[in-house]
Amino acid sequence: MNPQDSITLLAFFGIVVGLPVLCWAATDIFKRWLRHREAMAQVLSEQTAERAAQYAAKVERLENRMGVIERIVTDRSTHLSDEIERLRNAPVN
Prior knowledge:
Layout: H1 3-74, H2 80-89
């Protein structure tokens, strides 16, 4: 066997063995990267849902307070000052 045949045989085995191994490694790296991205998306989704719930609770408290203010402003009775004092002493959510 001459040196040219040895180089050709080495290149052939390099392609036959090396290329599948390289493709397998690249596929494995891509799968790991994809799992990581999915996990990050899940964490971000949970954080977003938690913030949305916090904002919803805050909006509800503000709406309740606004309702009290609207009642005070539209109340023309003589008990307005008593109502204001009662609300001033009441605990805020």
